[in-house]
Amino acid sequence: MSGTFSSLSGALSALRYNRVAMDVASGNVANAGTAGYARRQVIGQATGAPALPAIWSRWQGAGDGVEPSSVSRMVDPLMDARSRAEHSASSFLDTRSASLVRFETAIAEPGEGGVAAALDNFQSAWHDVANSPGDSAAGTQLLARAETLRSTIATQAQAVSNEWADQRTRLDALGSDVNQTAAQLADLNKGLRSASLSGTDAGTLLDQRDQLTLKLASLTGAAVTVNADTTVDVKVGGQALVTGNTAYAVTVTGSADLAGAATDPVEFSVNGTAVTLPGGEVGAGQQLLNTDLPGYLTKLDSFVATMANAVNTQHALGVDRSGAAGGPLFSGTTAATLQVAITDPLKLAAADPAKGGLDNTNANALANLDMGGTAYRNLVTGFGVTVSSARQTAANQSVLTAQVDASRESLSGINIDEEMVNLLAAQRGYEGASRVLTTMDSMLDTLINRTGLVR
Amino acid sequence: MSSARITQRLMVERSLSSLQLGLGRLSTAQEKLSTGRVINRPSDSPTGTNDAMRLRADLAANAQYSRNADDGSSWLGQADSTMTSMLDSVRRARDLMVQGASTGSAGTDARTALAAELTQIRSGLIDEANTTHLGRPLFGGTTVGPQAYDASGAYVGDTNSINRTVGKGVSVAVNVTGPAAFSSGTDDLFTVLSDAIDQLQNNPSAVSGTLTRLDAVSGSMRNALADIGTRANRIDTATSALASSKLDNTKSLSDVENVDVASAIVDLQMQEVAYQAALGATSRVLQPTLLDFLR
């Protein structure tokens, strides 16, 4: 049994509801290009009997109208977590592969300008010395090629150091980025908590929250826990970075150059505890700074030490034209410190001490000496494998990340066509409710103004 | 399922990423074609890089071996021509000695004239034995000095051999030392000739005995010449082996490192078509929305 005017209030509720639906649609259209905006959807609910009617009473209403029960944000927390994980892996692999690819071009292999070619030329110069022992032109050529070999090796060592220094500077920048983001998130947590207490619509804050956590995951591979009051806690490498409205400081310490890294290792600390991160850009930076780049340099140094030692040992077995035993041709045992120690081409020990004179036995021995070219080739090939697999995994991961992003977008993204349809539906609904009002109006007009009148 | 839901932004991003992918492939194909190489950095093909570096080292060593062989050939060639010309002189000296032995009774003047000519021949031979190659005495071993024999015909060089590496582990001696070519001690070419000069003047009857010694020396010279020929032959063989190995290595290097132009061009064309198709699809797909049709 409904009252005379209840249909009017039903129509009014429909007008209100459709206004809300139009607001939501227009909000969606307006934010179609906004980064991090999740699509909103208005959920309508028919006004009906209360779940618990008043005592000794019964509900007799019918068609009591509609009300917007909630405006929901179309997100899937599971997908958000997945997206954070994939973005963390993706930024790790992308950062590492970009750095390795950049360094790789500095190796200049295979080609005419690399260490391998310089080593071949150096050995070839020993053949020339063997062909004309005691000839200062051949000796000068040999010393020049030894110098070329030294400088190509030094260039490579320098390239490793430069890349290392770049990554080190980058890690500092990443550290302050993490600090800033964590501080923003802690502030946001405060807002989220009060919004949750007062029951206000916190959609915009939630959009921001998801963006900040995604950024932190990309930076550090952070683990994110969403609490019941919609705030988030973030842990990095097992250490709390954000808890409630507190953000803990991240510090980057340690040597600023590769040479000092052995004694003063680079550390990334959260709240004073050093952590090693498995993902994110910071993780990639740590991997490059602690493993990839120093590892390459160690192998290069070992090749240089082998080469210099082999050459010096063989050279010492011979005598020069004046009969003096050969001194060390190279000094220094690392790529960065290698130097050519002989400057006088007549000091090259080409002869066997037993024969002397213009004998070329020792020069021939040096020309045919194994100077560790195989070790260098293995180094380059091994590095090539590392770079190629880094590139490949980065490419695979970016496909995977793109897929996850696509499924997220598919749920949360705005489709303008759909919003237009929603808008049209709301418009028609509004028009329909107006029609109900007109109908009611004319009905009441008949009832009030015409009933009982006799012409 | 929600995955069926497509939004404008999704399409924009997909378009962008596939355009990016297409452009990336296009740039790779273009790089290959413009550098002419499939391996531009180690990661392009680590195993190929290994092969390329090995082949490059082999090629460099081969080039050097060829230069060593050329150098060795010139040493041996010079020794060969010098010894051939010296053998002619020795033959002339033998004729004179035979003449001196048979005309033993023909009078002192004739023999003195023979001895004078023989003296000329002997000093000519010493000059030839001192022939230098690149400033070094050809028959002096590894001596630092400028001569192999002094003016009196005594050997002043050493007996060391000069070796050239003409292949991996292949070393060839490219010199003949004085004692090996012209004998040593009392049977030395120059001692034999000075004995003959002396005998022609003072003891003609002994010349025939010296003749036998000269024959022994010239025999050893011919042996040395034959030895030089054999070694020159070895170097020639090594040179031709080096040439064919250079050809093989160059071809292998090209197989490993260089681009197959025909397939690279086809690949470039294909990537270009794919890229243009992606561009076309993007331009058509991103335009319309329902708004275009609502009036």
UniProtKB/TrEMBL annotation, chain A:
GO terms for biological process: bacterial-type flagellum assembly. It is found in: Bacterial flagellum; Secreted. GO terms for cellular component: bacterial-type flagellum hook; extracellular region. It holds the Pfam family Flg_bbr_C. Residues 102-330 form the Flagellar hook-associated protein FlgK helical domain. Keywords: Bacterial flagellum, Cell projection, Cilium, Flagellum, Secreted. GO terms for molecular function: structural molecule activity. Its main location: other. Signal peptide: none annotated. The keyword Aminoacyl-tRNA synthetase does not apply. The keyword Secreted applies. InterPro entries: Flg_bb/hook_C_dom (IPR010930), FlgK (IPR002371), FlgK_helical (IPR053927). Residues 412-449 form the Flagellar basal-body/hook protein C-terminal domain. It comes from the Bacteria. Belongs to the flagella basal body rod proteins family. This is Flagellar hook-associated protein 1. It comes from Nocardioides panacis. The lineage of its organism: Bacteria, Bacillati, Actinomycetota, Actinomycetes, Propionibacteriales.
Automatic annotation (TrEMBL), chain B:
InterPro entries: Flagell_FlgL, Flagellin, Flagellin_C, Flagellin_N. The keyword Iron does not apply. It is found in: Bacterial flagellum. Keywords: Bacterial flagellum, Cell projection, Cilium, Flagellum. GO terms for molecular function: structural molecule activity. Coiled coil: none annotated. Residues 18-138 form the Flagellin N-terminal domain. One of its GO terms (biological process) is bacterial-type flagellum-dependent cell motility. The keyword rRNA processing does not apply. Signal peptide: none annotated. Pfam families: Flagellin_C, Flagellin_N. It comes from the Bacteria. GO terms for cellular component: bacterial-type flagellum hook. Residues 217-294 form the Flagellin C-terminal domain. Transmembrane segments: none annotated. Belongs to the bacterial flagellin family. This is Flagellar hook-associated protein FlgL. The lineage of its organism: Bacteria, Bacillati, Actinomycetota, Actinomycetes, Propionibacteriales. The gene is flgL.
